[in-house]
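Section 3.1: Structural characterization of target chains.
Under the original work plan, the team committed to producing a structural model for every single-chain target entering the pipeline before any wet-lab resources were allocated. The record below documents one such target. The sequence was received from the expression subgroup and is listed exactly as submitted; it comprises 199 residues.
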Amino acid sequence: ALSGTRTNVALRDLPRSVQVITSEFLADIGALTLTDATDYMSGITNVGSQDQTNDNNTYQVRGFRQNKLYRDGQREPFAGMLYDAATIDRVEVVKGPSSLLSGLAEPGGGINSISKQPRPRREASVTVRGDNWGMRRGELDASLPLNNRLATRFVFVRQAGDNWQQYAWSNRTVYYGALSFKLTDATRYTASAEYFDYL
């Protein structure tokens, strides 16, 4: 509920509509992009001059166009930012006016994607997938605690091949890194960087 109130309140206790798609659900539906995630959210429409192959469309929430999305609570610099689901932990949508908490926001609501954070234990996963049209994709996601206070996480994605649409393909390379430092038991500072090469 951080997008809805900036506090850690259970969703069922909020007097407003907040919809969350978790990382488990993103994995279950095989989401590759933010558009794949928003297809499963009510009141959100993918709009723009391009289709879901390109995934740099903008969105409408409750009929109002989202000129700029949010990433980790910060407004993105321009509309149509590229996202890869491998770097997203969850997607939160606050429906209705929320400028009091979010600053500049459209009346329909706002979409906030939360980046993956380093975990307190050592873990890694490798995912390989493909489809009947010739797309091949590999993902590496590793989290490594360096000591009791410092942890890091790294995500690498390589996708290449044809797509369901003739003469169209979606080749991408993604590097994502996050470094987290525990200042106190209740305070953590996290910095992240992402490189996205898309063809």
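The CA atoms of residues 172 and 198 lie 4 Å apart.
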